[in-house]
Specification:
Structural class: alpha/beta
Shape: globular
Mean pLDDT: 89
Largest sheet: 6 strands, mixed
Number of domains: 3
CATH class of the largest domain: Alpha Beta
CATH topology of the largest domain: FAD/NAD(P)-binding domain
Oligomer: single chain
Strand content: 15-25%
Distance between the termini: 12 Å
Number of helices: 13
Length: 444
C-alpha cells in the first residue's frame, strides 16, 4: 500500500507540475490519472507502434520537455495510479478512487489534495450536431495525437476560438487540410475596434510566433479562414454530411464533408468537485484549467503555485510571487483573446437537441410546464440528469430559461448537493470497496 502526503488528481500539465514542485519540497504524492500514461489532453502522446511529429510551437515544446524532465526527476517521491478515476468524497472525508485496473473502489485520506482535472470543451447546440461524423475539435485533436492519423475524407472546422486555428494547421501539416475554417467571431475587426489594449496583450513574441506558425500552414495548404460564419444545421446525405452555414451579413453556403469538428471555447471542469479550502486540517486546492482556463503554459505555473499553497498549508514557508505574476500575465492574454473571439449567442431551433445524454430537444423544453427553478427543470424535464451531469447542457438550459423569465446560474442545474459518483462506476467495483483500506495501490 502507498501512503502519500498529497493526493493529486489529474496528470496533465498542472498535475505533473504540482507533483514535481511537491517533490522539491520533500513531499510525496499519489498521482491519480484515468489513462495509462501521463500528459493529459494537451500533452497526449502517440500510442502503438512508431511515432509521428505533431505541429507545435517551439515555446510549447520546450515547456513540455522541461515539465516531463522535472516529473522524471521527481518520480522517487511520486506514486502514479493509472487507469483510475476520482469519483467523490465519502461522509468521513475519504477520497474515493475507482481503480479500474483492479476492478474495485479504493479510498485515501491524504494531508492535502490538488485537483487538476482540466477543462470541458464547450459546443453550442446546432440542429444535427448529434449526428455521426460530428465531433468536437478537441476530440478530433486528441484522436490525431494518439493515432497519428487524420480522419479520412473532407473535414470542416467551425465555431470559435484559437483551437480551431491550431487544429486546422496540424491537420494541414499532416496532409489532410480542412476544407475551411468557419470562425463565428470576427477577430481582425475586434483588433481594429478594441484598439491598443487587446493588441498589447497579444503581441509577446511567443504568441506572435504561434500565430505565424499556424497562418503559414494554412496559407501553404490554401485553407480558407472565414470569419463571421456560423453553422446553422447539419443533415446526413449519401456522401457524408451537408453543412448549412450563414454569414452575419445574411449570405449562406453549403458544404458536403465527411467530418465536422465544432468548438465554441473552453470552460473549467468544476462539476461536482469538492470546493477549494486551505487549512492545515483540510487543504484542497484546484489547479490548472479546472480552476481557470489559461492554457497549457499557465497551467504548469498554476500547478506549481497550487503545490506551494499546499506547502504553506502544511507549515512551510515559500514565495509564490513570481508565479503569481506569470499567471496574471496569462489572465491578461486570455481576457484579450476572449474579446477577440466574442460571439453572439446561438439560438437552438425547435428540432435542436439540447441535452444529448437524454436526447431532449428544444421543443421538449418549450413544452415544459414549470414554475421556474433549475431544480424543477432538472427533475421534471430531465435536463442535466444524464451521465455528463449538466457539463454540456447547463449553460444552454440556463439561457433558454432566461428567455422565459427564469434566472439561475448554470451550476444550479445540479442543485446544492454534490452528486457522486462523478463518473459511472460498476456495481462490482463498489461492492469490492473496503472502508478499512488506508490508500490505493500505486501502479509503478
Amino acid at each position: 500500500m502507498t501512503r502519500a502526503d498529497v493526493l493529486v488528481i489529474g496528470a496533465g500539465p498542472a498535475g505533473l507540475a504540482a507533483v514535481a514542485e511537491l517533490a522539491s519540497w520533500g513531499l510525496t504524492s499519489l498521482l491519480v490519472e484515468q489513462r495509462d500514461q501521463v500528459g493529459g489532453a494537451i500533452y497526449r502522446r502517440h500510442v502503438g507502434d512508431g511515432s509521428h511529429v505533431l505541429l507545435m510551437p517551439e515555446h510549447h515544446r520546450r515547456r513540455r520537455d522541461a515539465l516531463m524532465q522535472a516529473y522524471t526527476q521527481a518520480q522517487a517521491r511520486v506514486s502514479p495510479l493509472f487507469s483510475s478515476v476520482f469519483i467523490g468524497v465519502d461522509r468521513d472525508g475519504r477520497f474515493l478512487i475507482d481503480n479500474r485496473s483492479l476492478g474495485r473502489v479504493q479510498s485515501v485520506r491524504p494531508k492535502a489534495v490538488i485537483v487538476a482535472v482540466g477543462t470541458v470543451e464547450r459546443v453550442l447546440p446546432r440542429e444535427g450536431w448529434e449526428l455521426p461524423g460530428v465531433v468536437t475539435a478537441g476530440g478530433m485533436q486528441v484522436q490525431f495525437k494518439e493515432t497519428g492519423q487524420t480522419p479520412q475524407g473532407k473535414i470542416l472546422l467551425a465555431g470559435s476560438g484559437p483551437l480551431l486555428l491550431a487544429l486546422a494547421a496540424q491537420l494541414a501539416a499532416a496532409g489532410n487540410p480542412p476544407l475551411a475554417v468557419l470562425e463565428h467571431a470576427q477577430p481582425l475587426a475586434a483588433v481594429w475596434w478594441q484598439g491598443r489594449a487587446v493588441f498589447n496583450a497579444l503581441r509577446s513574441w511567443p504568441h506572435v510566433q504561434e500565430a505565424m506558425l499556424y497562418a503559414r500552414e494554412l496559407w501553404r495548404a490554401r485553407v480558407p479562414y472565414l470569419t463571421g460564419w456560423q453553422v446553422q444545421s447539419v443533415q446526413t446525405v449519401a456522401d457524408g454530411l451537408r453543412i448549412n452555414a450563414r454569414h452575419s451579413s445574411g449570405l449562406t453556403r453549403q458544404y458536403t464533408v465527411k467530418h465536422l469538428a465544432l468548438h465554441d471555447g473552453l470552460l473549467p471542469n468544476t462539476t461536482g468537485l469538492p470546493g477549494a479550502v486551505q487549512r492545515t486540517d483540510n487543504c484542497i486546492v484546484h489547479a490548472g484549467d479546472c480552476r481557470e482556463v489559461l492554457g497549457a503554459s499557465a497551467a504548469i505555473d498554476d500547478g506549481r503555485r497550487a503545490a506551494q499553497q499546499v506547502v504553506r498549508a502544511l507549515g512551510q514557508r515559500c514565495d509564490s510571487d513570481p508565479l503569481d505574476r506569470a499567471i496574471t500575465a496569462a489572465q491578461r492574454t486570455q481576457t484579450a483573446l476572449a474579446r477577440l473571439f466574442q460571439t453572439a449567442p446561438v439560438t437552438p431551433t425547435a428540432n435542436t437537441v439540447v441535452c444529448r445524454c437524454e436526447g431532449l430537444r428544444r421543443s421538449a423544453f418549450d413544452q415544459l410546464q414549470v414554475a421556474g427553478s433549475a431544480h424543477e427543470l432538472r427533475l421534471v424535464g430531465r435536463f442535466g440528469m444524464g451521465a455528463c451531469q449538466g457539463r454540456f447542457c447547463a449553460h444552454t438550459v440556463s439561457a433558454l430559461a432566461h428567455e422565459r423569465g427564469i434566472d439561475f446560474d448554470p451550476a444550479a442545474i445540479n442543485g446544492n448537493v454534490l452528486r457522486w459518483p462523478l463518473r459511472p462506476v460498476s456495481l462490482a467495483a463498489l461492492a469490492a470497496y473496503d472502508e478499512s483500506e488506508s490508500a490505493p495501490e500505486a501502479v509503478l
